[in-house]
Amino acid sequence: MSTPGTLTSERILEAAEETLRRFGPAKTTVVDVARALGVSHGSVYRHFPTKADLRDAVVDRWLRRMHPALAAVADGAGSAPERLRLLLWTLAETKWTRAQDDPEFFAAFAELADEARTPVVAHVDFVVAQLTKVITEGVARGEIASDDPAATARALFDATGRFHHPSARSEWVRPRIDASFEGVWTLLRNGLLPRGSS
Amino acid sequence: MSTPGTLTSERILEAAEETLRRFGPAKTTVVDVARALGVSHGSVYRHFPTKADLRDAVVDRWLRRMHPALAAVADGAGSAPERLRLLLWTLAETKWTRAQDDPEFFAAFAELADEARTPVVAHVDFVVAQLTKVITEGVARGEIASDDPAATARALFDATGRFHHPSARSEWVRPRIDASFEGVWTLLRNGLLPRGSS
């Protein structure tokens, strides 16, 4: 048994990810996570009072790991349309890679994410905020036409759901999904450019 | 026991839909369907030699039921962009309504459709062909810009996956999904119009 002092939330979340990968969400209990750590389930509950809290923290941790890369693209060099493309591509490709390399974890993650409204909404808001920032800059520079950058950002996110929503993962067969992304992006890019440009 | 003469494929498929609605795909067997019809499972196998054949026929029947309405929109009046919008809307809204009115059947259907590649591919091809026809007409009339109407049609289909793919059904909460559709459509419409028009 570890002492409570050594049991950090981070260690619990790592153990929870590993337990989920092995048993799946339906069969993973707080007791399993505690057993993997060699602690009592009471020790886990002190960090995550309910199973829903633990579930939300696992999903939140995984989604937040993508955020630095997305923010770097949004704040990076290149025209606004190029950065939008790279933002959406990074969001999608990170998930394709993880779903392919670690299908057991990704299937568990997708099932949890379907229930974990709070971290998912926070993640979507973060991505839409990055897109909005780039669109707003693009409008100021005359690279993009939009009366409402936040609404345009949300539309871009929704129109690319097939590429980044975990429930669409059965469609992520490469290279077919790459070609599908390019086709959708071409259409969206045309929709973003100011009329009269090409 | 009915005589084989009275047991049509159509009757079997009706019984299969009802059995699926009640028990779900995992628990539905050919024997259950035969029992609901009061026939031997051998009689069902004469029409559908494998469980996969029966599954594909159920999915095919449901998807084909939408086709006359979609073809009527494609061949109907209105500008090409208006018809594309109505085609995509009809495709989406038919599924939203069914998923809401009959969630047990729709969940079963979604699960089956994930396995039933042949009828799903045929359905997607049908929808993309309708979109292609309208885009081709729109290009001829100067209402739409596209170098490759079939590729543009596929991109429209893919960019609206959130609205019509059964795996996205947890997102179909009205009126939020209606607003999302309008936002995506505005962007796609801008992407379709010839540069210089508005």
TrEMBL record, chains A, B:
<dbReference type="InterPro" id="IPR001647">
    <property type="entry name" value="HTH_TetR"/>
</dbReference>
<feature type="DNA-binding region" description="H-T-H motif">
    <location>
        <begin position="29"/>
        <end position="48"/>
    </location>
</feature>
<keyword id="KW-0804">Transcription</keyword>
<feature type="domain" description="HTH tetR-type">
    <location>
        <begin position="6"/>
        <end position="66"/>
    </location>
</feature>
<keyword id="KW-0238">DNA-binding</keyword>
<protein>
    <submittedName>
        <fullName>TetR family transcriptional regulator</fullName>
    </submittedName>
</protein>
<dbReference type="InterPro" id="IPR023772">
    <property type="entry name" value="DNA-bd_HTH_TetR-type_CS"/>
</dbReference>
<dbReference type="InterPro" id="IPR036271">
    <property type="entry name" value="Tet_transcr_reg_TetR-rel_C_sf"/>
</dbReference>
<keyword id="KW-0805">Transcription regulation</keyword>
<dbReference type="InterPro" id="IPR050109">
    <property type="entry name" value="HTH-type_TetR-like_transc_reg"/>
</dbReference>
<dbReference type="Pfam" id="PF17935">
    <property type="entry name" value="TetR_C_27"/>
</dbReference>
<dbReference type="InterPro" id="IPR041478">
    <property type="entry name" value="TetR_C_27"/>
</dbReference>
<dbReference type="InterPro" id="IPR009057">
    <property type="entry name" value="Homeodomain-like_sf"/>
</dbReference>
<dbReference type="Pfam" id="PF00440">
    <property type="entry name" value="TetR_N"/>
</dbReference>
